[in-house]
Specification:
Elements lengths: L6 H23 L1 H6 L2 H39 L8 H28 L7 H36 L2
């Protein structure tokens, strides 16, 4: 019987679910309100969804970082790498994109709508979208990378 905490399985599961969430928000949940509601109401609905997504991304990014740290430490103990892995770098990148793309730019976007600040709302929205796309790419890379981890763990098992 396998233990409930199988590190490669969790390294595979969490990024895959996270990628699904990000793609669902971007491709389905965000465009739908703009097709059905007034622009102001749709913006409020989407803003609320993106707020929840940003907080969930912080939690999932932290979880992935801890999983990658445990895997890197385990590999380093066996002399198969350093205590900093590519997966940790990808996870840190996702956290940076979340903080910069939502928590840093969101207050600036509110100010831009009020006519304040150096950048327009459109410029800030484009920057926020670029961070979201980068984060999604990093999470997809984590999920794709994890498929190889599971195969390697299965091959190494006695």
């Amino acid at each position: 019987m396998r233990p409930w905490f199988d590190l490669p399985r969790w390294q595979q599961l969490v990024p895959a679910l996270w990628a699904g969430m990000l793609l669902t928000v971007a491709l389905l949940a965000t465009p739908a309100p703009f097709a059905l509601l007034s622009a102001a109401d749709a913006a409020r609905v989407v803003g609320r969804m993106l707020s929840h997504e940003a907080h969930a991304s912080l939690a999932l990014g932290g979880m992935v970082l801890l999983l990658e740290r445990a895997a890197a430490r385990r590999s380093a103990v066996h002399g198969q790498g350093s205590q900093f892995s590519m997966g940790m770098g990808l996870a840190l990148g996702t956290l940076f994109c979340t903080v910069a793309g939502y928590f840093a730019l969101q207050p600036m976007m509110v100010a831009a709508r009020a006519g304040q600040g150096l950048l327009s709302f459109g410029q800030l929205h484009a920057a926020s979208a670029a961070f979201y796309i980068a984060k999604t790419g990093l999470v997809l890379a984590l999920a794709w990378r994890a498929t190889g981890l599971r195969e390697a763990a299965t091959a190494a098992a006695p």
